[in-house]
Amino acid sequence: MKLCKSCFTKSIEEKTRATIAKYNMFRFDDRVAVAVSGGKDSLSLLHVLAKVENRYPKASLVAVTVDEGIRGYRDEALKIAAENCEKLGIRHFSVSFEELFGYTFDQMVGRMDRKGNRETPCAYCGVLRRKALNVVARKVKADKLATAHTLDDETQTILLNIFHGDVLRIAKEKPATDEVHPKLVPRIKPFCEVPEKETALYAYLRGIRFQSTPCPYAADALRNDARMILDRLEEKHPGMKFTIFKSIEKIRPALEELAKGEGIGECVECGEPTTDKVCRTCQIRKQLE
Ligand code: SF4
Ligand code: ZN
Q: Cα of 279 to ligand 2 centre, how many Å?
């Protein structure tokens, strides 16, 4: 079925609304922080949520951005994110790796390389980004943190957790996380059932300016292999990504039951929520010293 421009953009907005309702993502008076990187997915999400929020006068939206300190990449993204927020009349807050962890990401990669660390940059950037987003969402007193993970991201993460032999982690990566710790802002993924191609098309059709340059460190990520496998599968067997996503949703209660023992406490070094004694961020920080 072919849709005109206006029907297509409406269909994405409706699909997102349906996902929000299905997973009970918002309360009518929530203050939602949208994680905006400046790319097509996060900016499309910001524009869609701005429309959703219009229907809830007691709800509010803010945008939050993490500046990792990646020269020639994040600076442009930050500008584009700020521009979009201004256009939509949404307040924009950012936090940098340098202010939180003492180094820009470029400096961290240099230090890790000199120390012979063999992890890909994305492996530790991901941990630090997650932490930074939680810190900034808490700072702006958000009730929820909305991230623009698409159906593609979700299925890639499922595969990555299997590659890493960490299947119980799948239980934690859900469309809407529970309130498990007062310092952990619950996360929601309103685009988890929307394919990445559709968020890109939404951005194009709505004339949203976004950053298209890829991160210079992204090429090494294992995620690229997961993406390639899934894209090939989807091309040959349309609907495969959605089938994988739905299969996990079906077995999620069993996975959650198995992962039940992993309670969340506070890191003995920084006091941030973690399932370990020392959180992964503090472990990375020690490696950097
Ligand atoms: Fe960080 Fe990797 Fe994303 Fe670049 S691609 S911002 S290194 S997680
Ligand atoms: Zn810590």
A: 4
